[in-house]
């Protein structure tokens, strides 16, 4: 099967959260910061719900970039690969080794900022045969023009540009799947889909 048509599953993908650090978040102006935070939390919750392997990394967290945002560590845990200087996470031996240790070739990536922390490792991983999904609404950068330029460059390099809710739906695949309703709850918790989800739950309750 062509890698561009093969879909994400709980068994073939990992999640990499790259440099969502408090000092860098201040500069993100391409989308509403509260919405971006909900997108990030939703993406992390999706991975945790289905038991997907996750990797979190930070660039010089003791410096001005700051620590990983607590919303991520609260969901995925405190294990963070702290890079001493590599701007491109893919050039960090520890990060790359963690990816390779999963044995999986599909990487769902998000990063702050989009045009550096996400774009550089996404392109580098594709160059080495990985199938990368860049989740742009769980990433952020300086302004919309920068975000659009990053999307164009990643697309040119063969990175799949995605959104977190689309990734969740692709992984879920079927509402009747083992984690279907639980994933629906994640979607409802972090998007306006909550009204649909709540209505469904109430209708089900009424028929019992």
Automatic annotation (TrEMBL):
It comes from the Bacteria. SUPFAM superfamilies: Isochorismatase-like hydrolases. InterPro entries: Hydrolase_YcaC-like, Isochorismatase-like_dom, Isochorismatase-like_sf. Residues 14-165 form the Isochorismatase-like domain. Gene3D superfamilies: Isochorismatase-like. This is Isochorismatase family protein. It comes from Thalassotalea psychrophila.
């Amino acid at each position: 099967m062509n890698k561009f048509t093969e879909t994400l599953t709980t068994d073939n993908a990992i999640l990499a959260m790259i440099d969502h650090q408090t000092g860098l978040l201040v500069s993100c102006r391409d989308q509403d910061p509260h919405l971006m935070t909900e997108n990030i939390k939703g993406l992390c919750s999706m991975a945790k719900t289905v038991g997907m392997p996750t990797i979190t990394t930070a660039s010089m967290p003791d410096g001005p970039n700051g620590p990983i945002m607590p919303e991520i560590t609260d969901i995925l845990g405190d294990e963070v690969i702290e890079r001493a200087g590599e701007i491109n996470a893919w050039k960090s031996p520890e990060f790359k080794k963690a990816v390779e240790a999963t044995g999986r070739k599909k990487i769902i990536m998000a990063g702050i900022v989009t045009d550096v922390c996400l774009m550089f490792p996404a392109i580098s991983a594709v160059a080495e045969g990985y199938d990368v999904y860049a989740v742009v609404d769980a990433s952020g950068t300086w302004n919309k023009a920068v975000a659009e330029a990053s999307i164009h460059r990643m697309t040119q390099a063969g990175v799949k540009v995605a959104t977190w809710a689309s990734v969740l739906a692709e992984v879920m695949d079927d509402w009747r799947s083992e984690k279907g309703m639980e994933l629906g709850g994640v979607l409802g918790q972090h998007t306006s889909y909550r009204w649909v989800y709540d209505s469904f739950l109430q209708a089900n309750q009424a028929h019992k």
